[in-house]
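We treat protein structure as text, and this decision shapes the records that our systems exchange. Below, we set out a record of this kind in full and without editing:

***
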Amino acid sequence: MSCRTLRRRAATIVALAATLSIVASARAADRKPFAVGYNAWIGYLALFVAQEKGWFAEEGLDLKTKMFSAPGDGLPPLLAGDLDAHLTTADSVIVTLDKAPGQLVNIYLTDTSAGADAILAKNEIEDVKDLKGKKVAATLGQCNHFLLMKALEQAGLGEKDVELVNMNPDDAGAAFAAGKLDAAVTWEPWITKISGEKLGHVIYSSKEIPNLLLDTVAIRTDTKKSEEVKAFLRALNRGNEFVIANPKEASEIGAKALEQKPAEVADMLPKVKLYGLAQNRAEIGTKDKPGPAVEAAAALAKFFKEQKVNDAVVDASTVFTPAYLP
């Protein structure tokens, strides 16, 4: 082959690469912006997987993500229009709806906690009954407080039987690990970390109240991006079903986002029950025949009113809609 021929082929390759680059840039420019909030939660692996695999881009979205410390922290920006959707919890939305009635709705269930939220206790505390008179941390008026109340109720105890300290789940986990508490209501990765280091053990978890602590996707009810929302859910659901079918690869993808080792992510994953499309339809139900998720929302709404977190009992029938499901 002559040098001239080589030069012609090289020039052709360069021109082709430039053309592909221009086409790719044009396609990227055509993508519609979509801003999503989330916190570092094991049940949101689908978001990280779908982003890594390019599935949001395939759906024509230019996805921008923003991480928050807690699931409720992204709801004010969502209400303000700074986010188009937020990965959060059903309870956070219910609390927000009390002050912003009719303005938010959950459109998709990513998962339910099935052991990823728990009461950790000192090793000498054998069960929930032994918490009587002990110093216990929980986030007052939030879902882990609800978890504690359910545990105490089943053990024949009440809130007044323990010395209750108000702490968010991460602070509670850290304080417990430092030996400052007898027990703490916390979440992953603290449960795996503390149990693994034998600093304490689980005496009650969300596994005992299945399908009640729900992680969701929330949007504004007045969203102007209905088609983008549907595209987002198509890619997210694809991600969730990939995680269900391929937990090992999903754990490797999600490890960076969760700032954990892949093996640690794999250990945490069984502590959530992930929902695909079929499970979403069954859990949310319809207006005429509400599903279990609506019943769970009703129980949480009642709890928040009793705890004086909310002024009124939020109408559970307004908390979920199946309208955007693929």
In short: The chain has a mean pLDDT of 91. The first strand starts at residue 32 and ends at 39. Residues 117-208 form a domain with the D-Maltodextrin-Binding Protein; domain 2 fold (CATH 3.40.190.10). The chain is about 45% helix and 20% strand.
